[in-house]
Amino acid sequence: MANDKGCVFHRGFAVLVCAAASLFVPVSAAPPHRVVSTFLCTDEYVYRLLPRTAIAALSYEAVDRHPVVSTIADVAVGVPTIHPSTEAVTALKPDLVVMYAGTNPRLHQNLKRLGVAVLDVPWANSLADIRAIIVMLGDRLGVPDKARALLAEMDAKIAAAKASAPHPPVSAILFEPQGYAAVQGVTEEVLRLSGIVNSAPVLTRTGQLPVEAVIAAAPELLILGGEEKSGSARAYAILHHPAFKALEGRTYMVFATLTPLMCPGPWSVDSAKPLAALASRARRSHSRP
Question: Whole-model pTM?
Fold first, then answer.
């Protein structure tokens, strides 16, 4: 479904498709010192690459706890946050505003008209895209060393996940609130390096999957996206559907919160090793007599 910021958003793990922008941006002579980020996924990059003294503000989503959608919700406490608007952003007198390409077009137009420097970050559809974005941001923000360190950390986590991943891969379905089960892009790549292959059958146009289809597929592993105690919310009720009892003894079922997959970035691979552990557990459960 389309949101009011010009993006298409499905409630599956990080399936947000925005208009992409070129990675080839001019490098400023002097690094910015008052950076504002206006979107959750750019918040995550800016916080990891810049010292707090260079961050004028992040979006409110960076530290929001209702619900928690950010991997920096705990550590970014104390960093100024805003609900992005032309007034809120310009009041901070930024020397660079980092935006996700295709989001908040009115704000983007207003900032350009006012002569405020804007850096559009494209959506990453692969780990290779993430690497290119890290390098680009390292150059543009004047922190190439931090960017290289972020890449090295990402590679180490990928290697650790691959080393612990089961072979052959485990068949799995990621089943989220309201029955969303769409998996693609970075999420699918993270699953593969974790020793998991998505076995969801053909989805509906909205990316939802009926409970009956999950039961018929009977994957080795069924990951229910969220905390088990959150079942009182209407959107989560489907995760507690009594029909799932039919999978007992055939499918290893587990609740898991995979916040790092909400936005594609180097932090996305933080889910890889835990996913590999779940896959190994599922495989062991099927090998028991």
Answer: 0.85
